């Protein structure tokens, strides 16, 4: 009986692979990748600007520590807005289709980023600039709240079942492209004279996001709707209240998704924003040097672009849960030695730490996560489920990490141990969560049932 079941599952998977449209798969991969690139380009330029520039530009009356905390607070506000964007656009995605949402979110997110580059500073307009910065960060967060959920859902529903981990992780190469663009841009402009940087040059990375917006919208207009949503429409199974259905049937899987994301998303923010600030602040090991962190992110992103796909493909072979579990464990094990090494003042060691933490620690969780989150949920409320799992955890981990970290650093006289313990705790939360996570590799995503 077991042999027959396995044979039937194999035949079903082969049949599923046979109906995949290569052109649609290519377009979906490209569309998702460009969107991911824009989101993480915005993510990194805003994170780096929060760590290095926004404090003195918009919050100078608060003093160095106060300005940094206020700057990271605006960073966190964007994350706080993301669940609301996830709910709103998740509803649209499950009610009216995945394609529409991907066009709306990229336009909203990119326009907000472009507008940040036009803001007046405190010296030019007092607190008006800070107020507008917060408002645009909220708009940016609303768009970003469904961008990755949409990209993940779209590519998972289009990809061949047996290689879903590989294809679902490909758009996340766009994350590394966005990181390369964002960190590379800041690494270059950080070399400029401080007066030029804080005068007008900081605006260039934000204004340049217009190019990515135009490319992404052009590509996404040519997309077809996914097979899973087409099946829902064909059989009149589209639900009128996907949010209500999600909370009735999938509370456990939403909690699982949140727990899985804590180690990945939280450590991504710690390594990419908080660590950069820790090194360059007045009491840091590289005080006043604004280029070491961005260059480290640049190196890490190059390795991460390869590793996210590698770990996604490994999850096709060995299962989502084992790859995720050992990735979270690895991130926990390296936490204390990694952040201690940063304090030694060796630039090469810092870059190695950032590369290992981001390219192996974070990507070993992100790779299997790309297909796993969509596979947890039934097709009727999948978009909403993925959005809620991603964005609630983004607030609890990614958004709060720099803010809480900055507060704890200020309270402990900038102790590196704060970063190590924070990283360790977040990784352990994900590690423990994997023991409650069902194995989802190979699921039929046309199914309206949740993974159990």
Describe this structure in words.
The protein has 452 residues and is mostly helical. It has a single domain (25-436), classed as Up-down Bundle (Growth Hormone, Chain: A). Helices cover 80% and strands 0% of the residues. Helix 15 (251-280) packs parallel to helix 17 (320-342). The radius of gyration is 21 Å and the shape is globular. Residues 1-15 have low confidence and may be disordered.
Main sheet summary = none
Helix/strand order, N-terminal first: HHHHHHHHHHHHHHHHHHHH
What is the mean pLDDT? Answer: 84
Q: How far is it from the N-terminal to the C-terminal residue, by CA? A: 21 Å
Give the CATH architecture: Up-down Bundle
The number of helical runs is 20
Radius of gyration: 21 Å
**Number of domains in the coordinates?**
1
From the spread of the alpha carbons, the general shape counts as: globular
Q: State the total count of DSSP E strands.
A: 0
Q: Which CATH top level class fits?
A: Mainly Alpha
In the predicted model, the low-confidence regions spanning at least 5 consecutive residues are 1-15
Q: What class would the helix/strand composition place it in?
A: mainly alpha
Q: What's the CATH H-level homologous superfamily? A: MFS general substrate transporter like domains
Tell me the fraction of residues in β-strands, as a range.
Answer: under 5%
CATH topology: Growth Hormone, Chain: A
What is the helix fraction of residues, given as a range? over 70%
Keywords: Cell membrane, Membrane, Transmembrane, Transmembrane helix, Transport
Subcellular location: Cell membrane
Protein name: MHS family MFS transporter
Membrane topology: Multi-pass membrane protein
